Amino acid sequence: MMREIRTPEEAAKLAGLATAALTLDLPEAPALLTRLATPPPARRWTALVAGRDDGVVFASVSGRDPSIGHIDLLAVHPRAQGRGYGRALVAAAEEWLRGEGVTRVRFAGNPPCYAWPGIDVRATPAACLAERLGYRHDGMAWNMTARLDQDLSAPAPPGVTIATAAPGERAELAAFVREHWNDEWAWEVEHATGVHYATRDGEILGFAAWGARPTWFGPTGTAPAARGLGIGRVLLRRCLAEQRAAGLTTVQIGWVGPLRFYSRAVGARAERVFWQYARDL
Predict the structure, then answer these.
(1) Are residues 38 and 164 in the same domain?
(2) 10 Å Cβ neighbour count for 134?
(3) Are both 132 and 179 inside the same structural domain?
(4) CATH number of the domain enclosing 131
(5) For residues 196 and 198, what is the distance between their CA atoms, to the nearest angstrom?
(6) Is residue 89 within 8 Å of 56, Cβ to Cβ?
(7) What's the pLDDT tens digit per position in 231-260?
(8) What distance in Å separates the CA atoms of residue 92 and residue 85, rounded to the nearest whole number?
(9) Whole-angstrom Cα distance, residue 204 to residue 265?
(10) DSSP codes of every residue in 157-210
(11) Per-residue pLDDT tens for 216-234?
């Protein structure tokens, strides 16, 4: 027996399943389900629940290439593991994706609304299932961990003002992000828990956000003309200080590109690694 859910309210009712199954992501595991159930309006997606909340799979179609689908999240309750639920859920997700015209499926994050970049290398059963179903390695990604028991003060560069963008007041900042980067980052800025940005003479120079993917830091960026001023370091530290005030003791910097920047700015270390898998339908 399998049913479809389509709303954040329905996803929230699976909090017990998320907490029991997604132990590498506690305590924010339930929030991952509600985030995936609140994607950008144009996203084609589904969530299928097996049994009596014994397992759930989220799947979506890539916004960049409609021939590619994503297994966004797969969770099976410990009480139901070893009974074929994982295989059945993936098969159901593949069937739905095939009906959407997808020809290739990836176990990989579908920006901007995702749970992980791929399968955590510590999630051995999930990786084994993917390989048993014919999926093959298709890339890697990693997070860095920043400790918050450090001095996070950082004065703004001369002539630069650092401000906070409250929810509902981010349209101009989102337009800046869209102009210099992409729509995905702009969506994350609009939906992040916290956003800080830098200006000079009324011109936006850079931004940093956290909580678009629950509790993680990112994205962040500085306009090309303002790089080298130290703005990125200041914005990063402002976000981390806010996350500490929210009760966190460490922060995941998600889907990292520049290792050296985060290592030098806050002593972050690369610790969480994800394997990405794919197969043709």
Answers:
(1) no
(2) 11
(3) no
(4) 3.40.630.30
(5) 7
(6) yes
(7) 999 999 999 999 999 999 999 999 998 899
(8) 10
(9) 22
(10) PTT-EEEE--TT--HHHHHHHHHHS-HHHHHHHHH-SEEEEEEETTEEEEEEEE
(11) 999 999 999 999 999 999 9
